[in-house]
Design a protein that fits this description.
7 helices; alpha+beta; 185 residues
Length: 185
């Protein structure tokens, strides 16, 4: 009986409570809109010259007009680097072959890696490999003839993608470390 009496006395919100709730809703929605607009500025496609490209934003088909943004570039470069690492970490390749690789914007063609297409990395990047670390790779024969596998010294290499036109808001370097030959890492 007491429970139904409480509902009978509840007449709803008063006018000051209603006004206060409406003002709070308006304030929070305003903050949400401002933050959303600010965040959306980072999601728009940007041309290589730095201008916002509203035509590109309206295009849906990325195959005819790809978005030149840093996330897309890094995604393509990471896929290419994964393919390069899986190929170069095989024990069948000599360390001198890897040391003689030069920076290139087309690693599939210049390095002879068939699994990489010619458009694997963006045009404004080059892929390089350096072996200038403190851990030098033993020859494959020395790695096989070790009595203790812990004495084997595989090579540590750094593979990196550098922007050809320098670092900007639209292009940044990317690097990865890998060990080879894979069975000794």
């Amino acid at each position: 009986m007491e429970f139904s009496n409480k509902f009978d006395r509840n007449k709803g919100m008063t006018i000051p409570e209603l006004v206060m709730a409406t003002l709070m809703l308006t304030a929070f929605m305003g903050v949400f809109v401002v933050v959303s607009k600010f965040t959306a500025n980072f999601m728009r496609p940007i041309n290589l010259d730095g201008n916002l490209d509203f035509e590109l934003a309206q295009e849906i088909d990325a195959s005819t007009n790809p978005m030149p943004d840093i996330l897309n570039h890094h995604y393509k470069i990471n896929l290419t680097i994964d393919s390069i690492i899986s190929t170069l970490s095989q024990p069948g390749l000599s360390s001198t072959f890897i040391r003689n690789l030069e920076c290139t914007s087309s690693p599939g063609r210049d390095w002879g890696i068939d699994s990489i297409s010619k458009n694997a990395i963006p045009d404004n990047y080059s892929i390089c490999i350096t072996h200038e670390t403190q851990l030098f790779e033993d020859s494959y024969e020395n790695l096989l003839n070790r009595k203790n596998p812990k004495d084997a010294k595989p090579g540590i290499y750094i593979i990196y993608a550098k922007p050809n036109n320098g670092i900007s808001y639209n292009s940044a370097p990317l690097r990865r470390i890998f060990c080879r030959p894979k069975p000794f890492c």
